[in-house]
Amino acid sequence: MIKEEFKPFTPAESNVAEFTIKSILLGCIAGIIFGAATVYLALKAGLTVSASIPIAVLAITLGKKFFKTTILENNIIQTTGSAGESIAAGVVFTLPGFLFLSTDIGGQSSGEAFFNYMTILILAILGGVLGTMMMIPLRRSLIVKEHDTLPYPEGTACASVLKAGERGGSFACTAFWGLGFAMIYALLQKVFHVISEAPTWVTTQANKFLPSAQVSGEITPEYMGVGYIIGPKIAGVLVAGGVLAWLGLIPLLATLIDPALAAHQLVKLGLLADITKAGGSVGWNPATQTFSDYPLAIYQAYVKQIGAGAVAAGGFITLLKTIPTIISSFKDSLGSIKEGKTVAETKRTDRDLSLKVVGVGSLALIILVAVLPQIPSNGILSNLLIGVLVVLFGAFFVTVSSRIVGLIGSSNNPISGMTIATIMGTCLVFIAVGWTGKVYEPMALVVGGMICIAAANAGATSQDLKTGYIIGATPRYQQIALFIGVIVSSIVIGLTVRILDTPTPEMLAQGIKHAIGTELYSAPQATLMATLIKGMLSFNLDWQYVLVGVFIAITIELCGINSLSFAVGAYLPLSTTLPIFVGGAIKGIVDWKERKKVKTPEEEELGPGNLFATGLVAGGALAGVVVAILMVIPSVRSNLSKVDVQPLFTRWFGAGGYELLGVLIFLFMGFVLYNISKKKNEAEDIVK
Predict the structure, then answer these.
(1) Distance between CA atoms of 96 and 525, rounded to whole angstroms?
(2) CA of 659: how far to CAs of 202, 616, 644, in Å?
(3) Is residue 494 within 8 Å of 124, Cβ to Cβ?
(4) Are 398 and 131 in contact (CB under 8 A)?
(5) Which residue, 292, 309, 303, is CA-closest to 251?
(6) Engineering a disulfide at 48: which of 89, 160, 227, 249 sits with its beta carbon 3.0 to 4.6 angstroms away?
(7) E strand or H helix at 202, and its extent?
(8) Which of 443, 465, 374, 441 is CA-nearest to residue 134?
(9) Nearest-5° angle of CA 384, CA 388, CA 394?
């Protein structure tokens, strides 16, 4: 039986406006917005949400209405903008690790000097370009040849959005309502402080039943939105890890471990200056041998390392489960190159950039890594090795990433597992050539960071190319747009990271120089990467705690549960995962109600609930970024403090009443999300 040739939405012979100045500019603006929002969300929660579908919705709403864009121009907007989210995820998951590497006598990290704007910018651009570049020879193999076997869920959904917009209908209004609601909520919470930021319930250390247990929640719109989008199952597994850590491990360890021993452990980790000096984020009192914040002290001293071990094991398990996919995809990519199908063909929809771009680009990348002064170095020869490792690991994991997201989607891409494997492989190479000690730690992080960025961007690039294949885009224009999106987004991503890292006056008073790594922006993945590098190159890892986490992850996996999601939940504060679970629970209730009506639960990204939740994520995250930028300016910070109503509300309602008010407003937002989720959306009828 002859296989019918695939016909795209826009025929190859059509002459439709595509790669235009307005499409590139609009795409760059979208990339900047969602890149900044992703940096904020990833630093806060260690999670990201795919930006491709929201950008596609905005493209067909704003672009078509105000700029008269075509479907192919809207695709270029979405393609260019999507680079921001993927680059931001790769950067945040690794590069803050520079702050957490081994410290010198003065307490400064060996990598702190490299946590500057120029180094972040260069590594973001090089990693992003690597991810896009390595996908050029893979497009025909994975996107075209395996169109029927690799669905690329987000890419297919984006194509549906673009086609729906071309045929008519308006459904972005719901997303804009969510964005507006989140902005108003965030204004009340972060500027006027009408809403408590993190209501908390803590038991005392002297409690006989559950000492130093803590339940808290950062009741923000972006967390509720993320929970709704990822659904009840993943949100439930995430919060389960937090429940084990904060209501199980911490009370147990607080009972068994003497506070002085915990203080010594905090000193060893560099989180407490001296056991004889009072202070630190945990409020250590050497006179009474007590902490003002017992749960945080136990979490930082022990549970965080247990969580790191669990995340590492969960990442490896996820990677091991994809080994058959890894082998087959790598074989297919080699076969595709041997077939010599990289020459541009006559059909517009078959035109890729030349394979020479990959060869010359790889060589240029190795040279740049070797000579640029902003990149950690121990001589040009050592950096040549780093460049070679980046290209080799990049070629492998870009292939792996593309194949995996083709099957299970970008949201489930095991980027952490690939980065862990890269870092451990790099450290083993370093050890083999005698490169041990803290001087080589930043160099190992460079390799891991660039591969993480490349793999994340390769996943997003694959989804974009799938969208383009379905609607009939020109691949070479998409590939050029992705290169532009990588560069423009990286400029703003680096700035956002540096701004969010600016410590508050309260932090400076405690001697804290970086906001990243504190409760404000915990950066869980980056901390894990730094922990692995330090442990391997110094042979001084606290394996007893790490291995507890490893076996917790193995136990959870043997129970048939996603160990990586559980491990991330155990690593993060419960204040992060609990509000995410609330969003997931709302999604679960909506699905349950629809099943009772013998309907199919809302699975489409175009459903009203998902669109409103997307608005909550974007609005809440953007508001967080804007407020963080404003708080950097002393005069603005001083003026904002004048409109703070928290002292007044606390006087009226008491501390507990003020926090209860915040919880009630958060639940009201959940009620609004629930009601909107039940409404019929015009777009669903169009797409279906």
Answers:
(1) 9
(2) 13, 21, 15
(3) yes
(4) yes
(5) 303
(6) 89
(7) strand 200-202
(8) 465
(9) 145
- Closest Cα partner for 240 from 587, 560, 569? 569
Give, to the nearest 10 degrees, the angle between helix 415-432 and helix 441-471: 140
One-letter identity of residue 253: L
Q: Decide: helix, strand or coil at residue 291.
A: strand
Q: Do 439 and 103 form a contact (C-beta atoms < 8 A)?
A: no
CA–CA distance, 231 with 610 (Å, rounded to integer): 10
Sign of CA dihedral 612, 618, 624, 630: negative
Say if residue 401's pLDDT is above 80. Answer: no
Q: Where does residue 644 fall: left (phi above 0), alpha (psi -120 to 50 degrees), or beta otherwise?
A: beta
Closest CA to 250 of 216, 215, 211, 217: 211
CA quadruple 473, 479, 484, 488: dihedral positive or negative?
A: positive
Give pLDDT tens digits for 310-365.
877 887 787 677 666 556 655 655 555 555 544 444 588 888 888 888 889 999 99
Identify the pLDDT of residue 573: 84
Q: Which of 394, 436, 416, 125 is nearest to 386 (CA)?
A: 394
Give, rounded to a whole angstrom, the gap between the first and last alpha carbons of the chain. Answer: 29
Joined together, the tokens standing for residue 394 give 């990049």
Question: Do 448 and 426 contact (CB within 8 A), yes or no?
Answer: yes
> Residue 179 has which token pair?
């964005």
Kindly tell me the sign of the dihedral angle through the C-alpha atoms of 526, 528, 529, 533. Answer: positive
Asked if residue 61 has pLDDT above 70, the reply is yes
Contact 223, 285 (CB under 8 A): no
The dihedral formed by the CA atoms of 323, 327, 333 and 338, expressed in degrees to the nearest 10: 170
By percentage, how much of the chain surpasses pLDDT 70?
A: 88
What SS3 state is found at 493?
A: helix
In one letter, which amino acid is 341? K
Nearest Cα to Cα of residue 249 among 549, 580, 604, 667: 549
Per-range mean pLDDT, top range of 544-548, 584-588, 589-593:
584-588
537 close to 440: Cβ distance less than 8 angstroms: yes
pTM: 0.75
- Residues near 597 by beta carbon (within 8 Å), at least 6 away in sequence: none
Asked whether the beta carbons of 442 and 375 are under 8 A apart, the reply is no
CA atoms of 395 and 400, how far apart (whole Å): 9
Handedness of CA 481, 603, 319, 434 (dihedral sign): positive
pLDDT average, residue stretch 275-297: 88
pLDDT, tens digit, for every residue of 137-160? 888 877 887 777 777 877 877 787
Token couple for 543 = 């394996």
Map residue 271 onto helix, strand or coil: coil
CB 325 within 8 A of CB 333: no
3-state SS assignment for residue 284: strand
Helix extents (H) in 203-354 = 221-244, 250-256, 259-268, 294-298, 304-321, 323-338
What is the residue extent of each domain of the chain? 21-167+355-508
